[in-house]
Write a structure and sequence with these properties.
Blueprint: H1 3-27, E1 40-47, E2 50-54, E3 59-64, E4 73-79, E5 86-91, E6 97-101, E7 129-134, E8 137-140, E9 143-151, E10 154-164, E11 170-180, E12 186-187, E13 203-208, E14 211-212, E15 217-223, E16 232-236, E17 239-240, E18 242-246, E19 250-254, E20 262-268, E21 274-281, E22 286-291, E23 294-295, E24 300-306, E25 315-319, E26 322-323, E27 325-330, E28 333-337, E29 345-351, E30 357-364, E31 369-374, E32 377-378, E33 383-389, E34 399-402, E35 405-406, E36 408-412, E37 416-420, E38 430-434, E39 437-440, E40 446-447, E41 457-461, E42 470-474, E43 477-481, E44 489-492, E45 499-500, E46 515-520, E47 525-529, E48 532-536, E49 543-545, E50 559-561, E51 566-570, E52 573-577, E53 585-588, E54 595-600, E55 607-611, E56 624-627, E57 635-636, E58 655-657, E59 662-666, E60 678-682, E61 690-691, E62 699-703, E63 706-710, E64 714-717, E65 725-727, E66 735-741, E67 745-751, E68 754-760
InterPro entries: Fibrocystin, Ig-like_fold, Ig_E-set, IPT_dom, WD40/YVTN_repeat-like_dom_sf
Protein name: IPT/TIG domain-containing protein
Keywords: Signal
């Protein structure tokens, strides 16, 4: 055989061998037991506000089972991101049902009860738990639930749980995950380990926050701390920190002055030093320049510097102590709108909890603008508040004149001046001059006449009068009623003869009528009650109004009655009449369900109410609510002055308005008794309040710019609350329980003989 034939023969044999081997391999099937299977999973969750969707490759499970033991367990772990954040679920009795997560006895923030189970008794010594690792801290769920559903070897777990960090802030995790073939990775129950055992040595579980400034307060949570401050030694990267408080599970410290970025360590008594996460020291901000250095309110101003927060919410900017709106922020540049209520002065920046840094002066170029006075009436020596824009930031920067006579400026800000009406003041316009530019108010200031010479004259007594009463006057008519339990509604057309017209009320005679409030709009009286609303033009003959035709006996309390409208509110429905109650329209509103005791300015633009649901010493103090769209939407007052209202003790006249001011009587939560009820005044729709006086206030009444209140004396202001003069009660009486200001001044007063009505002319 020659060489070429030999080569060809060998090649043919080689290819034949490959074909035979290929056929043989194609017929071979791997035994079923040799096939590698891995559990697959789908995981979706919202954890502390962040959304996660995890693929099967980032998810693992272990199924624990022991022969002869019907109780199984499942451990699942999801890797949430590349920063090392993880969440782990351990269910110690794995079967359909719901596990409730609770705080573990003996630890600071770990979950559960060693006997926690899912619809079955278990002897497992390791409890169900949820572990969350993020930002160097390890958290354990302290409350919530895990619900298990099984379908063959497929498990679906839903969770709704809550964690608490070292600072006491709570955050939640909700979602679900599905595991196919959860029995694939199986281990004996003897290999279950408890990640949160009860220990006798100190531990560090969480530190919050993990970054901050010198002198910031940092909370460390864990176990087995000492309640004696000096027995806990905390160091920031080796520098001793001051311990400000300590209990067995929480230590609070201040970041030391010379601290640098590094780990936090803790030594308790004679135990070993334990090491926690790294704490990063934040550098203080600096301001190098602002651009421009002058402009008008609302102009964009750029602040250049260092160590600003890149988050808008992490910085606070003020123009001469007036807050500015931040447009954008980077570590070296902040863009803001020059504060609308700012005035010429320094720009300051506060980053987080760091000290405020002061920058250059920004000069306002706006012309001053006087918007309104509070009040518009008064006398020489009275304090007057001028509201507006672009005033000077110091008293000396503003020249204020009353009809040409210069006044003393007490305090000054960009939007408000507090001044004293000058001696020799006469009625006329008020002007404000700033940097040579003058603004004149559109309405004149009126000098009030002298106070009236009060001479009390008794006009009525009845055993049907209560200690605290309501009154309403219209033309020469006077209407009087007492607390809710009374069956009296007295009317007089001449202040001599009083008739009980209670039975004239046109309500269901088969039910007890409980009178809530009296009101009038200049043309008619109104009575609200538990059985509806009634109207009378003469005080004797009454007509029932039907705001809700589907429920004619619907009860109401608060009522707004002005010359332009009637308004009633029940829950989330507002009833309005523009023709004195003949026809009504209804509309939904955004108010809380129990707002009541409504009052308004004369034009009904601003309406006010209080939340009657929160009004006892065991509740939080309630706040005032206001509406600027005639009762459609309601907003809670930003004022910090809140308290307890005594309407349920007969004090129905506690919330009143003049043309410009709002008056409210309440007692503080710390002293909730009726004797501690005081009167407060607001000149800016309830956003800020001033205490009127220290005398107990049982009732407040207003009439135009006249305001009266009191208990032991009768206090009267004829200039919208700017000044009050006290008058003695009629001799022999010591309890003022009702006031009405109309054509006469009326009061109800009490002594041992009962309650009497007195009047005085103006």
């Amino acid at each position: 055989m020659n060489l070429s034939l030999q080569t060809c023969f060998k090649a043919s044999c080689f290819w034949l061998l490959l074909i035979v081997l290929g056929v043989s391999c194609s017929k071979y099937k791997k035994p079923k037991d040799d096939i590698e299977t891995k559990p697959t999973a789908a995981f979706t969750a919202k954890i502390d506000g962040a959304d996660y969707a995890i693929e099967a490759t980032d998810f693992s499970s272990t199924y624990y089972t022991t022969s002869g033991d019907d109780i199984k367990a499942l451990l699942t772990t999801a890797t949430l991101n590349t920063n090392g954040s993880k969440i782990t679920f351990f269910v110690n009795d794995f079967k359909p049902g719901t596990a409730v997560i609770n705080k573990k006895t003996g630890t600071s923030s770990n979950p559960g009860n060693p006997r926690l189970k899912v619809d079955a008794v278990t002897n497992s010594v390791v409890q169900s738990y949820v572990q969350y690792i993020s930002g160097g801290n390890t958290y354990y769920a302290v409350s919530g639930s895990i619900t298990v559903s099984l379908s063959g070897n497929t498990a679906t777990i839903k969770f709704n749980i809550t964690f608490t960090d070292a600072a006491g802030k709570s955050f939640t995790a909700t979602g679900s995950y599905t595991i196919n073939d959860f029995t694939t990775n199986t281990k004996p129950k003897s290999q279950i380990t408890d990640p949160t055992p009860i220990v006798s040595k100190p531990t560090i579980e969480n530190i919050s926050p993990l970054s901050g400034f010198i002198a910031d307060t940092v909370s460390i949570t864990g176990t087995n701390y000492s309640a004696t401050l000096t027995e806990n030694i905390v160091k920031f990267n080796g520098t001793d920190a001051k311990v400000v408080s300590a209990i067995s599970t929480t230590i609070k410290v201040t970041v030391p002055a010379s601290a640098t970025t590094g780990v936090v360590t803790l030594k308790v008594k004679d135990n070993d030093v334990i090491t926690g996460p790294m704490f990063t020291i934040s550098s203080p901000a600096t301001i190098t320049s602002i651009s421009p250095t002058s402009g008008r309110a609302g102009d964009t101003v750029t602040i250049n510097g260092t160590n600003f927060n890149s988050s808008i919410d992490g910085n606070r900017v003020r123009f001469n102590n007036a807050g500015a709106v931040i447009i954008s922020a980077t570590p070296t540049k902040i863009k803001v709108k020059a504060a609308l209520d700012g005035s010429t002065g320094n720009v300051t920046v506060t980053v987080g909890s760091s000290a405020t840094v002061t920058g250059p002066v920004f000069t306002y170029l706006n012309l001053p603008q006087v918007q309104f006075l509070s009040p518009y009436q008064g006398r020489a020596g009275d304090t007057i508040v001028i509201q507006g824009y672009y005033f000077g930031g110091t008293p000396a920067a503003n020249i204020v004149k009353f009809n040409g006579i210069q006044a003393n400026v007490l305090t000054a800000a960009g939007t408000a001046l507090k001044v004293i009406a000058p001696q020799g003041v006469t009625s006329g316009r008020v002007t404000v001059t700033v940097n040579g530019k003058t603004s004149t108010d559109s309405a004149p200031f009126t000098v009030n006449p002298p106070y009236p010479n009060i001479k009390w004259q008794e006009i009525f007594y009845s055993s049907g009068l209560e200690n605290i009463n309501q009154m309403a006057s219209l033309r020469n008519g006077l209407l009087v009623t007492g607390a809710a339990v009374t069956s009296s509604l007295f009317f007089s057309a001449d202040d001599k003869t009083f008739t009980n017209v209670y039975n004239n009320l046109p309500f269901n005679k088969n039910s007890k009528v409980i009178i809530h409030l009296l009101s009038q709009d200049g043309k008619a009286f109104y009575v609200t009650s538990n059985l509806g609303v009634a109207k009378s033009t003469d005080g004797v003959n009454w007509t029932k109004l039907t705001p809700d035709k589907n429920n004619p006996d619907k009860g109401f309390t608060g009522i707004v009655s002005t010359s332009e409208r009637l308004m009633l509110v029940s829950g989330s429905t507002t009833y309005t009449s523009l023709d004195a109650g003949t026809t009504w329209t209804t509309a939904g509103n955004s108010q809380p369900a129990q707002l009541d005791y409504f009052t308004s300015f004369p034009n009904s633009k601003y309406i006010f109410a209080i939340d009657t649901a929160k009004n006892t010493a065991s509740h939080n103090a309630t706040k005032l609510y206001s509406s600027i769209d005639k009762g459609t939407t309601w907003n809670q007052s930003y004022s910090s002055v809140t308290g307890i209202y005594h309407f349920n003790e007969g004090c129905r006249d506690f919330l009143k308005t003049t043309n410009y001011s709002l008056y409210c009587a309440f007692s503080p939560v710390s002293n909730p008794g009726l004797a501690d009820q005081k009167l407060y005044r607001s000149v800016n729709q309830g956003y800020q309040w001033d205490l009127v006086g220290n005398e107990t206030c049982f009732v407040v009444k207003t009439f135009g710019v006249n305001v009266a209140y009191g208990s032991q004396t009768f206090n009267l202001s004829t200039n919208d609350g700017t000044t009050f003069k006290s008058f003695a009660l009629p001799q022999g009486y010591s309890y003022l329980g009702g006031i009405e200001l109309g054509s006469y001044i009326y009061i109800t007063v009490t002594n041992l003989s009962g309650t009497h009505i007195f009047r005085s002319s103006w």
